[in-house]
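Notes from the 1:1 (GR / supervisor)

We went over the backlog. Supervisor wanted to see one worked example end to end before approving the batch request, so GR pasted a single chain during the call. The sequence is below; no edits were made to it. Supervisor asked that the structure be written out right there so they could see what the output format looks like.
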Amino acid sequence: MARPRADDYGEKQQLIRDRAAELFATRGFAGTSTADIARACGFSKALFYHYFASKEQVLYDLLIAYVTALLAAAEAALAESADPRAQFRAVVRAHLRLYATARARHILLLNELDALPAAEKAEIVGLERRLVRLVADLIGRLAPPIRERRELRVPTAMAFYGMINWTYTWYRPNGRLTPESFADLAVDLFLDGIGAAAARR
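Structure output shown during the call:
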């Protein structure tokens, strides 16, 4: 007979995710063992395996949930308006809110994707590409020259992601600039340039 799940199974599984995310982000995936994760959770290594088969499974679980959340937030933001500029602002705000509240998971997505088995990595990369295409199509509607030259859409979208993705190295959401304010600044810089962005502030 299979061992029944405890009433707090979901809570302990989430605790493992949260502790592992922080450890992976600070020590690196390779530098973190299942024993480290179990110790951070306050239970034995053997108990860890009651919830996850491996630390790779924890990493996959973290990344697939995070990318899915990013995509869902972007799609919901698009539905807020029919105006491309307002849609772009809403999408970027949605991104920055998640970047701010899931910093460790964001770091993992940028730095630890190669630690996953090929099939699981490919699944996450597929979702990332959907997200980039969403932004690329939106930029195409904002800028007719980009729309007319399809080969520029994805590079332009990737250039924008390059602008916001690495903000975790310096940006602190509890500072003077809220995630929404920083998102607006990034949008204004990208669409209108430094002069216009500064004038609006």
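Supervisor's comment: The chain has two domains: 8-52, 55-199.
Batch request approved.
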